[in-house]
Amino acid sequence: MDSIEVVLVMMLAVVASAYIRRVLPGTIPLPLVQIGLGALIAAKSEHGVDLEPDLFFLVFLPPLLFLDGWRIPKSGLLRDKGTIIELAFGLVVFTVIGAGFLIHWMIPAMPLPVAFALAAIVSPTDPVAVSSIAATSPIPKRLMHILEGESLLNDASGLVCFRFAVAAAMTGAFSLQTAAITFFWLVAGGIAAGVGVTWLITWLQRWLTRHFGEPPGSPILVNLLMPFGAYLVAERLHASGILAAVAAGITMSYVELSGHAMASTRIQRSAVWDTVQFSLNGVMFVLLGEQLPEIFHLAGTSLEESGHLNRWWLLVYAVAITAGLLVLRFAWVWASLRLTIFKQKFRHQPRQKINPRLLLATTLAGARGTITLAGVLTLPLVLPDGSPFPARALTIFMACSVILLSLLVASIALPRLLAGMTFPAEPEEQQEEDLARRTAANAAISAIEKAQIELMESDACIDPDVYPQAAARVIAFYEHKLKEVDPESEQAWRKTDSAERELRLAALAAERNTVFDLARHDHISDETSRKLVREIDLMEARYR
């Protein structure tokens, strides 16, 4: 019963955090508010949460990474794949080596393999934290796509480095060849498991639907279970479950293009996934806050045992490690941009200058999050000889401190760094949208004309003017979309379109209020009310 109560309190904290963030001054990221509420729960609760890392990985990460992979723009991933791979893999290894030696130099009581383990687990950026920071900072879309792609892929490389650093701490041995082979299998096996499970489940679901029909709610439940299936299959194969969940999400985005799902299913599924995403994201950061007091206590004890009686050294170490991570990230990003410019010069392509503010923004936007927390909690309690794992509590505390400080630095510095900057619009997006609208409108007009003829032939008893009149009304709507606009009047046309949108929203709001009023006075039934309101809501969603 206590566990259920704690879960309910945490869910309430997630709900409260959204409202608290709106009333707080400044641009405080939602994760920081949720961490604070988690710490408050820990202070007021007599029963702490015993966080099982394996269960945490299974319950929270697969659906969130699946959804991120599903919704991330694929064109952005493919266009900047070189930069994303450099950040997701090269930067992780660079960070592990550089930060590992820095940590061991600052804290000699922490063995070098343990220092490498700490550097490895704080190297991956967190997609949830990155998205939260982007919501309050004017980050360019292309840079945001790069950061999202990096955070989706660097989890696997960071966790692999962490695994081998821990193994070296446990056994005192490290094999580069074994590490390389294992890393290849983790990546290849994880991607294959994610793609294979998604295609298999999709094919089986379509076969069942074709032969037995589609039970209400079944496609949504299958879709929710898909990331867990991909994750578990990959783990059984000793591959990366995290990459499997990401690959499953990316595969699902291509499966979705087949258009087999019904419109009502897509609408309901989107609402369900939005709720799942908000809930799991929030609970993860509330859990992090709830763990902090106990972690701080254990880290202080570990520090005293190493000879430091002043606990302020914990803050010094945390700030130094966070600063070191920022310096390493800045150096890697700068070198990567210089290499890109050199390639452009070598290929005789137009060269772009490095924008110092965007360079700093890319450095500061690499916030850490719950992947780091979940990974560091998997540190063993004892060594093979039965002695305690060296500096375990201190390592966990440092990882949690890096999470908090990276969020704080990003949330404070990014809005000020990017304030006043104007980013050039990406015209290809508007061109793609216009092309899609025109092509779809032409297809719709052709379909209407064909359907009109078929309906008139199948229903000869009806007034012959009914179908032409109905078709003319529907076609007029699509012809409005196809109206050619010369460049000089394009701005005026878009203002007219915006005005029409506002008028339609006002009319729909009046419709909905009238339907509710009729239902309140028992002029129509609840069932009729719900049906009409749903139609109005769906129409309104088109204009929002």
From TrEMBL:
| Pfam families per the UniProt record, alphabetical | Na_H_Exchanger
Q: Where in the cell is it found?
A: Cell inner membrane; Cell membrane
- TM ranges are 55-72, 84-107, 113-135, 182-204, 216-234, 240-259, 312-337, 358-383, 389-414
Top-level taxon: Bacteria
Alphabetically ordered keywords of this record: Antiport, Cell inner membrane, Cell membrane, Ion transport, Membrane, Sodium, Sodium transport, Transmembrane, Transmembrane helix, Transport
All copies of the Cation/H+ exchanger transmembrane domain together span: 12-419
Q: What is its main location?
A: membrane
Is Flavoprotein a UniProt keyword of this protein? no
The annotated topology with respect to the bilayer is:
Multi-pass membrane protein
This protein's record includes keyword Ion transport = yes
> Record's InterPro entries?
Cation/H_exchanger_CPA1, Cation/H_exchanger_CPA1_bac, Cation/H_exchanger_TM, NaH_exchanger
Q: Which family does it belong to?
A: Belongs to the monovalent cation:proton antiporter 1 (CPA1) transporter (TC 2.A.36) family.
Q: What is its biological role?
A: Na(+)/H(+) antiporter that extrudes sodium in exchange for external protons.
**What protein name applies here?**
Na+/H+ antiporter
In its UniProt entry, the species of origin is given as Duganella levis
